[in-house]
From TrEMBL:
InterPro entries: CodB, Pur-cyt_permease, Thia_CytX. It is found in: Membrane. It holds the Pfam family Transp_cyt_pur. It comes from Thermosinus carboxydivorans Nor1. This is Putative hydroxymethylpyrimidine transporter CytX. Keywords: Membrane, Transmembrane, Transmembrane helix. Belongs to the purine-cytosine permease (2.A.39) family.
């Protein structure tokens, strides 16, 4: 086993629980308020059951092949094809970094305004961005494991306090749904959150000491953490009419504990976005240091947070689903069903795979309009995977390879 492959079950359990405990997940859960608690919680559990399982399948590839998530797309799309998805992934991760920072900064600012009349949104953006910067500097080595574990355990305790206050109002469970949202929309908004981590998970599972333990640690940590946050957001939005974590925590009289939840949860989640953006970017310049790029992404995301508009949050989630659902449907089909598990160094572009992916993107928006009970992500992944499986025997010549003696493709 490689010396760097040292992360164990507990590390993945805490890593992904920490990633799930975030302001963004609470906000997403609040979007499901029109469904009411019973139907909304069903949509949350069903969506996360499916989405987290797909997420972990991507992580298994990383552990087995010891490659980052975006590099795994080279198996299906070739070296140049994977660059397209590396670029898209960097863009979505910069977007996530900005959204996480601004949403946390707004919540923290609301709390400090109420507690001490301290109103400095810009300063909070800079402080939270600076803490993420520091988290990346600490890196995966040395004391980071212990610091991250301590932070997540503290978050766990603070989240229990938050849950106790939110669910104290038992009327939440009996309140009639407000209407205006279909069950399929709730499932879709629950699936796309774990799906948004698919282009990242292998960046971390490639360092696991055991594939099965990494998979179960990741699945349990993210599933329970994310469902918990969604349910808190849903319950709070039903009870108070607001899903803003700051309003929830102020109503719960959590005070300084509220600041701890917001700041810690944002740091433990967003450093993963910035770090993976660095991992994806070095596909363009292999000689670059991924940590250095991650630090630059953090700075860019922090500056973007100063002007970001999080009102388009739901649309942002759906855009991620449209791009990465068909992409990983093809990658997972290639790896687990067609058994194509080796990167062909001669393959530059697989035009056939790119064509199927483009069809999948179009299908995603069509499925959104159909209001299917499972949303759009699952149907489009099934259809795209089947389409690729059937088409693979006919499009295996639609490739562009290096001009070299005895090329291995074509």
């Amino acid at each position: 086993m490689n010396e760097s492959n040292t992360l164990k079950f507990r590390h993945y359990l805490l890593l992904w629980f920490g990633a799930a405990v975030s302001v963004a997940e609470i906000l997403a859960g609040g979007l499901l308020v029109p469904l009411g608690f019973t139907t909304g919680s069903t949509a949350i559990l069903l969506g996360h059951l499916i989405g987290t399982t797909l997420l972990v399948m991507g992580g298994i590839i990383g552990t087995r092949e010891r490659i980052p998530a975006i590099e795994s797309t080279r198996i299906s799309f070739g070296a140049y094809g994977s660059l397209l998805f590396a670029g898209l992934n960097v863009l979505q991760l910069i977007g996530w970094t900005a959204i996480m920072i601004i949403s946390a900064a707004k919540s923290a600012n609301e709390i400090t305004k109420m507690l001490w009349q301290f109103d400095q949104l810009t300063l909070w953006c800079l402080v939270i961005g600076g803490l993420i910067f520091l988290w990346i500097v600490l890196g995966r080595e040395g004391g980071w494991k212990l610091i991250n574990m301590a932070a997540v355990l503290l978050l766990f305790g603070l989240t229990i306090m938050l849950s106790a206050m939110v669910f104290k109002d038992t009327n939440v469970f009996a309140k009639a749904p407000a209407g205006g949202m279909l069950f399929s929309e709730g499932v879709e908004l629950s699936v796309v959150m774990p799906l948004s981590w698919l282009p990242l998970i292998a960046d971390y599972t490639r360092f696991a000491d055991n594939a099965k333990k990494a998979a179960w640690g990741s699945w349990l940590g993210y599933f329970f953490g994310s469902c918990w946050m969604y349910l808190i957001g849903l319950a709070a939005a039903i009870s108070t009419g607001k899903a803003d974590p700051a309003d929830i925590m102020l109503a719960a009289n959590l005070g300084l504990a509220a600041l701890g939840i917001i700041v810690l949860s944002t740091v433990t989640t967003t450093f993963m976005d910035a770090y993976s953006a660095g991992v994806s970017f070095i596909n363009f310049r292999p000689g670059l240091n991924e940590k250095l790029v991650a630090l630059v992404v953090t700075v860019v995301g922090t500056l973007l947070a100063l002007v970001a508009d999080i009102e388009q949050y739901e649309a942002f989630l759906l855009t991620i689903g449209s791009v990465f659902a068909p992409l990983f449907a093809i990658v997972l089909t290639d790896y687990f069903i067609l058994k194509n598990r080796v990167i062909n160094p001669q393959l530059l572009v697989n035009w056939g795979a790119l064509t199927v992916w483009a069809v999948g993107v179009a299908l995603y928006y069509w499925f959104l309009k159909l209001d299917l009970v499972l949303g759009a992500t699952i149907p489009v992944m099934i259809v795209t995977g089947l389409l690729y499986r059937v088409a693979s025997r006919y499009i295996d010549k639609w490739v562009y390879c290096k001009k070299a003696p005895n090329p291995c493709c074509g």
